[in-house]
């Protein structure tokens, strides 16, 4: 699971949970897999992501290198920063571990890089 | 409207090229259509994407016989012809006929007629590597089973400009795909769907019923970053039963990711998730996809499932450590499509497209069976027959309105004016159709009353 995906996921599917974002990452295996650098795509996704959540997630898996706590207005042409964002969004991958609901503590296991977001029958809303 | 025409229209609208498609073409079995385009650049850009159009020519003449065509070539303004026919550029003429075979000598006769002294063609003939290639196309009307007509009903002459992307169909053929599932979409239709969805560079495309990711491969081909979800844990982890005959077990590295990697698109792979597509709250509000391209399960070869709430006491296992597979419930097809539209209305960017297949029992089909949503507009709806009674329709919708939910009004909801599947599941209709076809071929024996239950 890439952190760009983590940035889009919530646990609000659990019955009774309303603040299921961002999910806590409890990784046991994290890898950095090379992805072609594409500043246009990074810039485009910057308008869609929740940056504080990305910053927090990247640091929580030990890959917050080069990320500022807050994004300024000068990102667009700052190649070093775009590369750091590219790395955090697309190259850092949680291979094994759990996503944890911040409200209920419910764990969603990640195996082989694929999160399992399925709930049990008694956990879903009717 | 046929798929070929739809594909061309969709690509041209994506490219922003104004174009006029001649309405009466592609009729009576003719494979030709005239398109007015603004430039050769536009024409080439179109052919860089289309998989259904084979070849594009600059039309130099058309008529019912060669003489008429020759006359038209003569009338063409000199400066539009000369750059391709002067003494310094080599050329060749290819004669192609449809619905009729011509002998080589007949073809040569036609070429000689076109290039006789005094014609516009001044360059050297070069059959293998000409600077310019001209094609004489003859279409013979084919009436039923009788012989083709003696005279062509239409003759075209044109300068070759560009070929379409038909070769891609072989390149992406499922036969050579590392990871396939029971209902993997074939390469051609996948690419048509990506064209109807107007997938382009740097788009973010989602397939909520991803399976083996065929639609993602096509989307990545057109430059998109791709993600998918599927409720089938075993399939995404390559532990499901193999889909290929004679294959005993899936190899560990079979995955959507490996499929993208196979074609050099690994950088376009975002993620796949094991998830229930009916649970939209899994996605953070405010994240938007450029396109949603999908083939939902119809319940025939892949079951349509979602997880429904039951009382705590009915849950079979509560063992935290064990890998658990929640009970999946039959998912009514009508609900799948309503859920899909609700999802698209919320998570597509404005102007983004939803492209999906809707299975149809033909005798019951009516346009009112197409699901609707206040935020989405049907762009096109095209049938692909699968049997005499079953077909599927490729539906393209555009998000035309922002999804607004200010808390006071009710959320805009998808609806199906007349639910095709209300009385009977598609599976029941499907097997009833299969059975009645089988009994009809047996000589119209007794009609069977009972229907197969799912």
From TrEMBL, chain A:
<protein>
    <recommendedName>
        <fullName>Multifunctional methyltransferase subunit TRM112-like protein</fullName>
    </recommendedName>
</protein>
<dbReference type="InterPro" id="IPR039127">
    <property type="entry name" value="Trm112"/>
</dbReference>
<keyword id="KW-0489">Methyltransferase</keyword>
<dbReference type="GO" id="GO:0008168">
    <property type="term" value="F:methyltransferase activity"/>
</dbReference>
<dbReference type="InterPro" id="IPR005651">
    <property type="entry name" value="Trm112-like"/>
</dbReference>
<keyword id="KW-0808">Transferase</keyword>
<dbReference type="GO" id="GO:0070476">
    <property type="term" value="P:rRNA (guanine-N7)-methylation"/>
</dbReference>
<comment type="similarity">
    <text>Belongs to the TRM112 family.</text>
</comment>
<dbReference type="Pfam" id="PF03966">
    <property type="entry name" value="Trm112p"/>
</dbReference>
<dbReference type="GO" id="GO:0030488">
    <property type="term" value="P:tRNA methylation"/>
</dbReference>
<dbReference type="GO" id="GO:0046982">
    <property type="term" value="F:protein heterodimerization activity"/>
</dbReference>
From TrEMBL, chain B:
<comment type="subunit">
    <text>Part of the heterodimeric TRMT11-TRM112 methyltransferase complex; this complex forms an active tRNA methyltransferase, where TRMT112 acts as an activator of the catalytic subunit TRMT11.</text>
</comment>
<protein>
    <recommendedName>
        <fullName>tRNA (guanine(10)-N(2))-methyltransferase TRMT11</fullName>
        <ecNumber>2.1.1.214</ecNumber>
    </recommendedName>
</protein>
<comment type="similarity">
    <text>Belongs to the class I-like SAM-binding methyltransferase superfamily. TRM11 methyltransferase family.</text>
</comment>
<keyword id="KW-0949">S-adenosyl-L-methionine</keyword>
<keyword id="KW-0694">RNA-binding</keyword>
<dbReference type="Pfam" id="PF25904">
    <property type="entry name" value="Tmrp11_N"/>
</dbReference>
<feature type="domain" description="tRNA (guanine(10)-N(2))-methyltransferase TRMT11 N-terminal">
    <location>
        <begin position="25"/>
        <end position="166"/>
    </location>
</feature>
<dbReference type="InterPro" id="IPR029063">
    <property type="entry name" value="SAM-dependent_MTases_sf"/>
</dbReference>
<dbReference type="Pfam" id="PF01170">
    <property type="entry name" value="UPF0020"/>
</dbReference>
<feature type="domain" description="Ribosomal RNA large subunit methyltransferase K/L-like methyltransferase">
    <location>
        <begin position="176"/>
        <end position="306"/>
    </location>
</feature>
<dbReference type="GO" id="GO:0008033">
    <property type="term" value="P:tRNA processing"/>
</dbReference>
<keyword id="KW-0820">tRNA-binding</keyword>
<dbReference type="GO" id="GO:0005737">
    <property type="term" value="C:cytoplasm"/>
</dbReference>
<keyword id="KW-0808">Transferase</keyword>
<dbReference type="GO" id="GO:0000049">
    <property type="term" value="F:tRNA binding"/>
</dbReference>
<keyword id="KW-0963">Cytoplasm</keyword>
<dbReference type="InterPro" id="IPR002052">
    <property type="entry name" value="DNA_methylase_N6_adenine_CS"/>
</dbReference>
<keyword id="KW-0819">tRNA processing</keyword>
<comment type="function">
    <text>Catalytic subunit of the TRMT11-TRM112 methyltransferase complex, that specifically mediates the S-adenosyl-L-methionine-dependent N(2)-methylation of guanosine nucleotide at position 10 (m2G10) in tRNAs. This is one of the major tRNA (guanine-N(2))-methyltransferases.</text>
</comment>
<dbReference type="InterPro" id="IPR059073">
    <property type="entry name" value="TRMT11_N"/>
</dbReference>
<dbReference type="GO" id="GO:0043527">
    <property type="term" value="C:tRNA methyltransferase complex"/>
</dbReference>
<dbReference type="GO" id="GO:0032259">
    <property type="term" value="P:methylation"/>
</dbReference>
């Amino acid at each position: 699971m890439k952190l760009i995906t983590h940035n889009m996921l919530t646990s609000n599917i659990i019955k009774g949970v309303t603040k299921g974002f961002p999910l806590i990452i409890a990784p046991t295996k994290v890898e950095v897999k090379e992805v072609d650098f594409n500043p246009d795509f990074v810039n485009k996704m910057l308008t869609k992501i929740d940056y504080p959540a990305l910053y927090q997630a990247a640091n929580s898996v030990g890959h917050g290198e080069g990320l500022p706590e807050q994004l300024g207005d000068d990102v667009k042409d700052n190649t070093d920063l775009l590369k750091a964002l590219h790395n955090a969004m697309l190259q850092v991958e949680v291979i094994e571990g759990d996503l944890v609901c911040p409200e209920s503590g419910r764990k969603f296991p990640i195996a082989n890089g694929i999160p399992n977001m399925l709930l049990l029958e008694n956990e879903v809303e009717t | 409207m046929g798929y070929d025409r739809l594909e061309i229209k969709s690509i041209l609208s994506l490219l922003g090229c104004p174009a006029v498609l001649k309405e009466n073409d592609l009729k009576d079995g003719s494979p030709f259509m005239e398109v007015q385009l603004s430039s050769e650049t536009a024409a080439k850009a179109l052919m860089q994407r289309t998989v259904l159009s084979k070849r594009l020519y600059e039309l130099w003449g058309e008529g019912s016989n060669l003489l008429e065509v020759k006359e038209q070539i003569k009338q063409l303004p000199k400066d539009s012809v000369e750059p391709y026919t002067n003494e310094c550029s080599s050329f060749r003429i290819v004669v192609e006929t449809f619905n009729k075979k011509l002998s080589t000598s007949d073809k040569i006769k036609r070429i000689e007629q076109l290039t006789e002294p005094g014609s516009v063609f001044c360059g050297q003939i070069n059959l293998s590597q000409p600077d310019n290639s001209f094609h004489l196309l003859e279409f013979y009307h084919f009436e039923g089973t009788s012989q083709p007509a003696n005279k062509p009903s239409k003759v075209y002459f044109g300068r070759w400009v560009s070929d379409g992307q038909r070769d891609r169909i072989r390149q992406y053929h499922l036969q050579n795909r590392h990871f396939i599932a029971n209902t993997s979409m074939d390469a051609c239709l996948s690419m048509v769907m990506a064209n109807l969805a107007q997938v382009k560079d740097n788009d973010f495309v989602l397939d909520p019923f991803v399976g083996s990711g065929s639609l993602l491969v096509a989307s990545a081909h057109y430059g998109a970053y791709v993600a998918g979800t599927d409720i089938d844990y075993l399939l995404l982890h390559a532990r499901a039963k193999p889909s290929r005959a004679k294959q005993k077990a899936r190899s560990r590295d079979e995955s959507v990711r490996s499929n993208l990697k196979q074609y050099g698109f690994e950088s376009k792979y975002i993620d796949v998730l094991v998830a229930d597509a009916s649970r939209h709250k899994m996605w953070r509000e405010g994240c938007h996809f450029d396109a949603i391209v999908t083939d939902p399960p119809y319940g025939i070869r892949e079951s349509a499932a979602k997880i429904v709430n039951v009382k705590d006491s009915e849950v079979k296992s509560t063992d935290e450590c064990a890998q658990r597979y929640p009970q999946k419930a039959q998912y009514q097809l009508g609900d799948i499509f309503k859920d899909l539209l609700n999802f698209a209305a919320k998570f597509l960017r404005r102007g983004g497209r939803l492209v999906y297949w809707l299975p149809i029992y033909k005798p019951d089909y009516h346009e009112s069976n197409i699901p609707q949503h206040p935020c989405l507009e049907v762009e096109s709806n095209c049938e692909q027959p699968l049997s005499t009674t079953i077909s599927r329709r490729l539906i393209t919708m555009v998000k035309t309105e922002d999804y607004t939910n200010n808390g006071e009004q009710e959320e805009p909801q998808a609806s199906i004016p007349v639910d095709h599947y209300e009385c009977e599941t598609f599976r029941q209709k499907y097997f009833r159709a299969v059975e009645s076809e089988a009994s009809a071929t047996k000589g119209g024996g007794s009609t069977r009353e009972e229907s197969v239950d799912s």
